[in-house]
Amino acid sequence: MNFSTSSFKKGLLFVLVAALAGGAALLWMQTQRHSQATSTNATQAVKVPEYSMMARAGLVTFEATCARCHGSNGTGTDKGPPLLHEIYNPGHHPDGAFVSAVRQGVRRHHWNFGDMPSQPQASDREIAEIVRYVRELQLANGIVYREHRM
């Protein structure tokens, strides 16, 4: 085969441009996934309500057990989705879904994070307190029951 220097340079330039474009696309996708997962509403700060006694207990347990993945105030991290998000409204994820997730774990389905492992150290009372905390926080931030439709 006889390649000219000009053809070689054009081919090399094409490969380089394609690699840069592919890298840029991957970086953009990672940024989009991270920003989607870590923000609830970029224009609105989290409103922290006056919690009931049960929710205050749930806050303590949430911070110790859940916040490393779901973020302080349920805003999400690069390890887990925000619970302060419309998709977790009680019409789409009723309280039992949270209980089941803590007890049995849950397979990834809405977000691009891994599966959530079960949290066997959490007692039934602690789980109920966590759910109350999340629901009161959601309510204060406008996340209310909306009928789920497929």
Mean pLDDT: 82
Helix content: 40-55%
Instruction: Give the low-pLDDT segments.
Output: 19-43
| Gyration radius, in Å | 22 Å
Listing every helix as H and every strand as E from the N terminus to the C terminus, the arrangement reads HHHHH
Give a short account of the largest sheet.
none
Shape: elongated
Structural class: mainly alpha
How many runs of DSSP E, i.e. beta strands?
0
What is the CA-CA span between the terminal residues? 58 Å
Give the structure's gist in a few sentences.
With 150 residues, this protein is an all-alpha fold. The protein contains five helices and no strands.
Characteristic key phrases:
elongated; 150 residues; mainly alpha; 5 helices
Structural commentary:
- It is a single chain.
- Helix content is 52%, strand content 0%.
- It has helices spanning 5-38, 53-65, 67-70, 95-104, 124-140.
- It starts with a helix and ends in a 10-residue tail after the last helix.
- The relative contact order is 0.16.
How is the secondary structure organized here?
Blueprint: H1 5-38, H2 53-65, H3 67-70, H4 95-104, H5 124-140
Helix pairs in contact: 2-5, 4-5
